[in-house]
Design brief:
Helices cover 44% and strands 18% of the residues. With 254 residues, the chain is of the alpha+beta class. It has three domains: 61 residues; 78 residues; 103 residues, Orthogonal Bundle (Arc Repressor Mutant, subunit A), CATH 1.10.10. The chain is globular, with a radius of gyration of 22 Å.
Length: 254
């Protein structure tokens, strides 16, 4: 709805008041205009223009997407190794039971800094692989941010830097999972996310029920902190401190 308004008014940009009123009327209530603008800006350039005392939004055009990077070829031996479980890593369907065809997928795409290491490869059925590629194409506008976050050594830092890079915008769980597993696969990446609490980071989350059959969870950073020199040691120290703080006086005396 917001894009439609900006497109129709690109020669006579809509003011802040007009834009807010339009969305409130269309959706019969309060609308988070900043969030709507942030979502549209993932794909389109929107300039903020001052017209006297009024702020107006001018639609400029598409955001430039980086050129795609071709995936390197997978050897027959590596293909056989990755697909040996004979089960799609995403939907769980198998060639024997469901007649699906498996292919090798990069957990972290090559264009985002992924490698051909077996830890970065997984078997996906063709349908899941197409669906993932379509989703990643939507996220291509964030490729530089994702690549930078994925280059960090610790999974907690990778997750934290990705949340920071999105600058208060919502990040879906599958993107967090991909970046968390950039260097080594993280089966319980949610735990690495929770580790940020021990470093005094603050974030929030929400569930969205209208994006297909699956309920997706989104995370948004509220407050970040400087990284300690040794992330693992700092987390362990804070864990111990909190456990000790929960002990009763009688336990402490013992």
């Amino acid at each position: 709805m917001l894009y439609g308004l900006l497109y129709r008014r690109h020669c006579r940009p809509a003011s802040l008041a007009e834009t807010r009123l339009y969305l409130q009327t269309a959706f019969s209530g309060d609308v988070d205009l900043n969030r709507a603008l942030a979502d549209v800006r993932d794909y389109f350039v929107i300039d903020e223009v001052r017209d006297g005392q009024e702020l107006r939004y001018r639609l400029v055009g598409w955001v430039d997407h980086p050129e795609p990077v071709d995936d390197p070829p997978i050897s027959d031996r590596l293909f056989a190794e990755v697909t040996a479980p004979q089960r799609c890593a995403q939907c769980g369907r198998t060639p024997l039971e469901h007649g699906v065809e498996l292919d090798v997928d990069y957990r972290l795409p090559i264009s985002w800094g992924g490698t051909v290491d077996p830890d970065n490869l997984q078997p996906l059925c063709l349908r899941c692989k197409r669906g993932k590629q379509q989703y990643l194409e939507v996220q291509a506008v964030h490729a530089d941010k994702i690549r930078q976050a994925a280059s960090c050594d610790e999974p907690q830092r990778r997750i934290g830097e990705l949340l920071k890079a999105f600058d208060g915008k919502w990040v879906r769980t599958d993107l967090l999972s991909i970046v968390a597993s950039a260097k080594e696969y993280q089966e319980d990446w949610q735990r690495r996310l929770r580790d940020l609490r021990y470093l005094n980071w603050n974030y929030t989350h929400e569930k969205r029920y209208h994006e297909g059959a699956r309920v997706w969870t989104y995370y948004r950073l509220i407050q970040a902190q400087p990284w300690p020199e040794n992330i693992h040691a700092a987390i362990k120290m804070e864990e111990r401190r909190r456990r000790q703080a929960k002990r009763s006086p009688s336990d402490s005396a013992k």
